[in-house]
Every structure is written in C-alpha cells, then in structure tokens.
Amino acid sequence: MSAATPGFEHLLRLSDDTGLFEHARYAVVRREHGYCTDDVARGLVVACREPRPGRRLTRLAECYLAFLTHAQDRSGAFRNRLTFGRRWVEPPGVGDWWGRAMWGLGTAAARTAIPWIRDEALHTFVRGAEQRSPHPRAMAFAGLGAAEVLRMTPDSTVAASLLMDAVAAIGTPSEQPTWPWPQPQLTYANAALAEVIVAAGELSDDRQLLTTGLRMLTWLSDIQTHDGLLAVVPATGWRQGAPRARYDQQPIEVAALADACATAACVTGDDVWHERVRRSVAWFEGANDAHVSMRDPATGGGYDGLTEHGPNLNQGAESTIALISTMQHARRL
C-alpha cells in the first residue's frame, strides 16, 4: 500500500457478513470480542469516501449499513456491542457509538454513488437525529455526519439543528492563548471538536465561528508538533498545567487531526493545512517519536499504538481504519 493507494485488504480480513470485528492478535481476528457499532460506523465512513468503489468495497458498505440499521432502535438510539453469536449485550444508548453511527450514516448519505445505500443511510440518519447525547464527543461525531448531509442538502433543517447543537455541546473555548480549548483536558479524537466548529462556521457562513474553530485547530496542531514531527497526545490524555506523557500514542488521534486539517484546507484554501495533513501521513510512515512505521506492509493493517518500545503489533479495526482514512487524504494531496 502506497501513500496514494489506501488499502482495504485488512479491513476485509476483519469483516464478515455480519459486520466488522473489533480486535485482532497481530493480523488475526479475535472473534471472541465480537463487533461494535463504533468500529462499523468508522468502517462505513472510509468505505463511502472512496470515489470509485469496486464490488467488494460496495458490498462492505452495504454490510456495515445493515449492521447500523439493525443496531438502531425506534427512538433513534443505537446498541453498541454484538457478540460473535449475534446477541446484543447492551441496551440502546447515545454514547460515542451513537455519534459515530451518525457520522457514518451522514457520510454514506452524502458521498456514496450507490442509490440504495444513500437512501437508506439518510433515512436512518434522520431517525438518529431525533436523539441528542450529553457527551460532547458523541455530539461532535454526530455533528461531522450532519455536516456531510448539509454539504449535500444545504436546506436540511434536521442536519443543521444537529450540527449547531453539536457546537453548543462542545462549548466555548477558553480565551487563554496557552489553552484555547473548551475543556481543561485533551483526551481522545480531540481534533474532531475543532473540525465540527470549522464545518459549522463554513456551512452557516458564520465567520466568527469559523475563526474560533481554526484557532482551536491551529493550537492543537502546533502543540502536537515537535521538530517537524507529529507527536499526538497519548491515550492517558493531557490536563492543562500537568506534565504531558509521551506514550502511548494512538492512530485515532493522527487520523482525527488529518481529517480536521483536510477540512480546514478545503474551507480556507491555505496550503499550511495540506502540510499538516502530510505530517499525519508521515507519522504512519515512520516520522514519529520512535522513528518506526505504524503499518504492516504484508497485511495492510495499522498497528494499534505507538509505545516507548515501538509499535503495538496488533492490528485492530480502529487503527486500521485510522490508517486508511489518513491515506485517503494523502491520495487527494
């Protein structure tokens, strides 16, 4: 897999006719952990971003969409975890998995060229948009899906309402120049929060909101860049005023930053954002704190994390999708 060709071989290896398995030991599926809506939704995003999907990729998108429609209840909430024996183990809810499902559905409704996938995704998205989550990140993920729908259908009041509610849930960033962020701690998928505000500013033609999102994203990108290399906030997070750990760095952080910077590049036309996308691509190729590749050339899988001893060689769904997503941006560059 080259930077210009995002590979789906390992994602196909992790999938069956039900959905997408969450975990792998090295490159081999661990079926005992089953499936989750979180990862299936992520898979739908990258499958539907492909401009010319072949038969296998179209079938994968259909499978992931069917999983999400099965996971959703009549209220629009989603179940998250399904066992290998096809038994749901949690009640429907509006945690991160609801937000990511909405992101996947919005992307499918807006980007796929397959009419029946597009129509069913939009129907399921509209039902899901009846819900709201108390969790800012869940709302941010849902807001990304809403932004996708609005780019396709600018007069969608359902999507517009969800997007602006996502902005409200994220909150107003601090005025402190050293920490211009809405919360006192960076945790996971941080760049998604800034991306939603950038998208909302663009789609509502609100220049102040757009400026706020770009300021957040600039700061987040700058504090995660050292000597020209990307060094994302580790899995333990980073609280304002506290020491910052170096490891374990997660591919999801790199992919979220690439997504947000690609959106900023599209909105502003400024080449500086393209360069920041390239740093994310380079992180997977070895331009990171440990100077090691974060993908397996034999399988096409993405490694599960960057530790002080090198990569975690397991190749689960989240990390593989993060790799694919980032390489999709590389191809567009």
From TrEMBL:
- Record-linked SUPFAM superfamilies: Six-hairpin glycosidases
Q: Which GO annotations describe the biological process of this protein?
A: carbohydrate metabolic process
Q: Which InterPro entries match?
A: 6-hairpin_glycosidase_sf
| Protein name, UniProt field | Glycosyltransferase
Provide the species name: Nonomuraea fuscirosea
